[in-house]
Amino acid sequence: NSKLRTFGFDIVTEDEKTVYPLATETQKEMEEWLLTLGKAIGLIEEEDTIGKLKELSVYGKDYPTPDGTGIRDYIHIIDLAKGHVSSLNLVDKNCGLQIFNLGAGRGYSVLEVIGGMRKASGREVAYKVVGRREGDVPVSYSDASKAEREMGWKALKDIEEMCSDAWRWQVKNPQGYINKK
Fold it and tell me: Read out DSSP for 113-124?
């Protein structure tokens, strides 16, 4: 293990090569999603990849939303990282414990994300509509107005840029960060 001193906190990382330890778990989740998407649209064909789905599952298309699919608040990893840094800067000001929502403050439907990935990749994204998952709500997005007001932070990247950057990363890392040695 390696220790990194950041904003007055000791952060233990798994190895000395971890550049952004706060984003490690988010990065791993994003990579797994990208590998799954890469497999679904035919970029990844190797059997030893994480992404093994031939198509994405869209859980429900009968929600009271414009295209019938669930709407969620997607945020670019860079916007999220900048939000974390902004919040850690408050620690240096000894402002006490506060809670901030970090999100885009607007939602994108599942089909909008699939469309964004189709545009970014230039390929069709295979998907199938399956039944709703129990507990899923039609629309969920954050109110990040406090973060903007008190930290001066706001998510800047839209779904098109998120998908474009995600696709570029996937093309450069078809096996993902997780499998790199």
Answer: HHHHHHHHHTS-
